[in-house]
Amino acid sequence: MTQIELRNINKHFGPFHVINNVNLTVKDREFVVFLGQSGCGKTTTLRSIAGLETIDSGEILIGGTPVHMLKPEARDVAFVFQSFALYPHLTVFENMAFPLRAVGMAKAEVAATVERVAGVLQIRPLLKRRPSALSGGDLQRVAIGRALVRNPKAMLMDEPIGSLDAKLREEMRVELKRLHVEQGSTTIYVTHDQIEAMALADRIVVMHAGVLQQVGTPAEVYANPVNLFVAQFVGSPVMNVADVTVSGAAGAGLVTVKGASEGFAFPPALLAQVPDAARALKLGIRPEAIEVALTPAEGHLAAEAHIVEPLGSHDIVDIRVGDSLLRARTRPGFVAGPGTPVWLRLDPTRAHLFDSETGNSLGIRL
Ligand SMILES: Nc1ncnc2c1ncn2[C@@H]1O[C@H](COP(=O)(O)OP(=O)(O)OP(=O)(O)O)[C@@H](O)[C@H]1O
Ligand SMILES: [Mg+2]
After folding, report:
1. Considering only CA atoms, which residue is closest to atom 1 of ligand 1?
2. How far is CA 241 from CA 227, 258, 284, in A?
3. Residue 295 confidence (pLDDT) above 90
């Protein structure tokens, strides 16, 4: 059982509060992804768990044992760095054997362990090569292999595939997932790539400026973002956000985008859930939750296509509504081009309302 617990951890670099009262429990065998933009404290948090940074306050427990006062080697966690350095003069086998020899493992056992892990990573044919004769993806596998041979309690990976090209990243992503399914080690994985996070994580931890914003499964974080930061960080293209007012007419709810002459129809239940309609609100709606029609339809608002972006499997159509440009997802070629008249409806079950001042979701579900 290797559970990792962070309890009220804090760290400053000079005046900067880089880890701000972080609480998190990573369950045994769970794959947790830290997601956030550059400088939000992902690496520092990971290094603190590994013992490569000291924390100012709080507790870190691995497998129930407090470790924050222990040296890195006593914590038994493996770390894969973004800029992994293999020994250039050693073969792949020797690179992977290095951490085992360092702890005095017997020769036959070293060979057996390296062979086994190389099998899992599908790099057995490379064992005799030196790093200079490997591709970027091979190098990455060897770096991961070197971390895995020790059979650590937990794996910490800091943007391990960030430096690879897009195609190789996709391949490695699948491989990492397979590896986790097979090995099942408790893993914390850092990335700023939300697609990678969605694809790999059991749970995503969204970070911003040293503060955990939301912890949840990819589906939860995508469907129920707690604030505007999370809403716009997860999902591509990003969630549309527009200033709106909420009002009622003939028992139905109306959500009117700032600058628009008409509002979108919403179920009356909306009115009960927006206690103070005068409040400045922002509507969040993902491109796939905007229904686009080419003829007038009941409950649809008239508008005009501004730009059509063909992406192969689907199109993204920019549509001006009031002061905002809303991006909608349609099937390829559905909207002919700029200037095409369209009629829009928002799916109320997938609409979000945020407080403009705090950015927090009102948590309304229709
Ligand atoms: N040794 C250090 N001394 C001073 N400030 C530091 C040090 N290491 C990191 N920082 C600062 O702490 C903040 C968090 O850094 P960290 O490396 O944890 O971010 P990150 O989320 O991993 O970013 P990236 O995605 O760019 O790797 C940043 O503002 C960074 O400049
Ligand atoms: Mg980093």
Report:
1. 13
2. 12, 11, 5
3. yes
How far apart CA 174 and CA 196 sit, in angstroms, is 10
Tokens representing 244? Answer: 């709106």
pLDDT at position 280: 85
User: From ligand 2's centre to the CA of 192, what distance in Å?
Assistant: 9
Does any ligand 1 atom lie closer than 6 A to the CB of residue 40? yes
pLDDT tens across 309-338, in order? 999 999 999 999 999 999 999 999 999 999
Cα 329 to Cα 276: distance, rounded to the nearest angstrom: 32
Which one is the CATH code of 4-230: 1.20.1260.10, 3.30.70.270, 3.40.50.720, 3.40.50.300? 3.40.50.300
User: Rounded to the nearest whole angstrom, what is the distance from the C-alpha of residue 17 to the centroid of ligand 2?
Assistant: 16
- The ligand 1 atom nearest the CA atom of 34: 21
Mutate which of 19, 42, 205 for ligand 1 pocket (most atoms within 8 A of beta carbon): 42
What is the CATH T-level fold of the domain 240-355, as seen in this structure? OB fold (Dihydrolipoamide Acetyltransferase, E2P) (2.40.50)
What integer is the mean pLDDT of 269-284?
Answer: 82
